[in-house]
């Protein structure tokens, strides 16, 4: 195996590294040493390919082709070659696609998940909310695909519940997901455009795509229909049109939308961090407090934001403020519009619980 070379006497001298690894092995768990070494480039570049040596058959199933070869830092699929970077297979650049790619959306989600990439305690409860329409034990032998995986926060809770996970994201967030799932060896990571996947029909048994398709520059329900060929079961979450809320919710949304369309063009990391902090403190928290005061009288649900965020911590809310105010594209659908998917799917199961609307589609 080809290994990177280091200057004698330098901080990265191999003899020093070995000595340091031995003396610290009892203090640091193996996963932490691995992450530390990777971050400094101390693992050979060939390691990128080695992660997939026992996953060739899975890759053949996913791409629907037997002619697959694992090369140094590259996966060859027929006549195509896909680079491998930190165990992430890089698919065709989204810039090559037509109409379904928005560079600013890619930038925003990459930045968002690099800043808010931690798996938080609240995510476990949210996972249970999203999967209330799914028979989780049925996934035990399934290949599950997380499309638009972001930081991998939902896959994190699936990693021990299914046979194999395929994670796909078109932004730098895929590398955050790789870090969050570093302890699992059942995962395959792709960086690519979910609207033009080079995968085979029925490559997965189950697909989840939560909070993603409503940010695409194409109609989100059309994007849902486009996923039908890839798996017999789809779990989808799309922003709701506030169709089950009082009229003033939609008035407030119109105001927020006006602000969002202006702020989405600002890419300053400092501004985005400060705004998401202040937005949490002076917009979300006051509404949550008002909802808490009214809830004993059965009026909490009439206060915007209260129901979903009442049990969330500051960091979790701050991440959503970032998402809400710096993403240029935001589509919303009603329950009635989702039910129109019955013409394309055998069954449409819409959950009656937050977050609205998440639903299961059976082909």
| Terminus-to-terminus distance | 46 Å
Instruction: Compute the average pLDDT.
Output: 88
Shape: globular
Give the total of domains: 4
Order of helices and strands: HHHHEEEEHHEHEHEEHEHHHHHEE
CATH fold naming of the largest domain: Rossmann fold
Low-confidence stretches: 1-46
Question: Helical proportion?
Answer: 25-40%
Strand order of the largest sheet: 1-2-3-4-7-6-5-8-9-11-10
- The oligomerization state is single chain
* Main sheet: strands, sense, barrel: 11 strands, mixed
Helix count?
14
Rounded to the nearest angstrom, the radius of gyration is 22 Å
Instruction: Please state the second-level CATH architecture of the largest domain.
Output: 3-Layer(aba) Sandwich
CATH class of the largest domain: Alpha Beta
Descriptive notes:
This protein folds into four domains: 1-41, no CATH class; 45-84, no CATH class; 94-241 and 332-362, Vaccinia Virus protein VP39 (Rossmann fold, 3-Layer(aba) Sandwich), CATH 3.40.50.150; 265-326, no CATH class. It has 14 helices and eleven strands. It has helices at 14-24, 30-39, 47-50, 56-63, 103-115, 121-130, 153-156, 173-180, 220-226, 247-263, 269-294, 306-309, 314-326, 335-339; strands at 68-71, 74-77, 80-85, 88-90, 143-147, 164-169, 187-191, 206-210, 233-237, 347-350, 358-362. The chain has an eleven-stranded mixed beta sheet, sandwiched between helices. The N and C termini lie far apart (46 Å).
